[in-house]
Amino acid sequence: MNAHCLKFEEKPIQDAISRIRFAPASNSLLISSWDTSLRLYDVDGSKVTYEASGEAELLDCCFQGETVAFSTGSDCSITRYDLDSGISKIIGNHDDLATCVEYCDATGQVITGGWDKKIKCWDSRSMKALSVNTVNVAVESMSVSGFIAMVAVGSSVNFYDLRKFNDSYYSKRMDIQIKCVRPYLDQGVAAGSVEGRVSLKCFNPSNQNKDEFAFRCLPMATEKKHNMAAVNDIIFSPSTYGDFITGDNDGYVTIWNAQSRKRVFEMPKFENSIASLSFNSGGQLLAVASSYTYQEANELEIPPRIYIHEMNDQHISSTLAGGSR
């Protein structure tokens, strides 16, 4: 598995990375950071192709197609960026920190969440708020799969059909304090917890116990068994069915398989917490953001780094045969 570190020679990232996301079709990587900047990095060309700075720390980002992006900020703002023209504009706000942003390609809607306990749905054309849902805790994580928005609400996940957003059509308890929530293949939800566990469950209540399980993301080093770190991100491989990757606050990136329920591969420990992970559309490239996350007082505030790993399916599949829980 070959890897290299992205270079930011003219203007290095000066603060914690909050999110990285590959574009839907290209190898352009969107990067939001606490240094108030949104960057677009051409991985193939090894250069920054877009950068916009604001007044607030950026807490999340997402793409709308290849040429438009959105971010949420510590000043409660939601910002839209035209990556071709370079124009950026604040299009709305929450009443407290705006923590999450997702784009739904199926409906053309932007969905945001915040510490104000609100989930807002915006029309991406008019950029007007279409509807608002209120939950009972601050929104820390959300994801979109098809028409479905998944929102972490304490130890449960609320599922919203974006075609009729005003009502939560289903809520599923995950039995963990959720740190991140992501789509589980095409059938459910994966949630990572603040105490180092992952829970995989199906959308449909009738599929109870089918491919549903929870496990502790223990690194192979036995001395870490009693020091469970938060699972900051989970992503599923677009190229190898059932493989998913976790990144935790201790700096471990681990590949797992949902069908065998086993560890496939564990990367060498990174120098800092794993803030975010992203696959490119074909699954050949994995981006890993190694950065402090402001979760613990003793975190090393060394410069954040982004590594690009070329995924070697043959190597991973050969490791799978000898994998262990």
Query: What portion of residues is helical?
Result: under 10%
* Major sheet: 4 strands, antiparallel
Q: List segments where confidence is low: pLDDT < 50 over at least 5 consecutive residues.
A: 317-325
Q: Which structural class do the helices and strands define?
A: mainly beta
The strand count comes to: 28
Q: What sort of overall outline do the alpha carbons produce when their principal axes are compared?
A: globular
For the biggest β-sheet, the strand order reads 1-28-27-26
Q: Give the terminus-to-terminus CA distance.
A: 21 Å
Beta-sheet strand percentage? over 45%
Q: Report the order of strands and helices.
A: EEEEEEEEEEEEEEEEEEEEEEEEEEEEH
Helix tally equals 1
User: Could you tell me the mean pLDDT?
Assistant: 89
Radius of gyration: 19 Å
Annotation keywords:
single chain, four-stranded antiparallel β-sheet, disordered C terminus
Would you give an account of this structure?
The protein is mainly beta and 325 residues long. The chain contains one helix and 28 strands. The chain has one helix at residues 313-320, and strands at 2-5, 17-22, 28-33, 37-42, 47-53, 58-64, 68-73, 77-82, 88-93, 98-104, 109-114, 118-123, 129-134, 142-145, 148-153, 156-161, 168-173, 178-184, 188-193, 197-202, 213-216, 231-236, 243-248, 253-257, 262-266, 274-279, 285-290, 305-310. The strands form seven sheets. A four-stranded antiparallel β-sheet has the order 1-28-27-26, with no helix packed on it. The radius of gyration is 19 Å and the shape is globular.
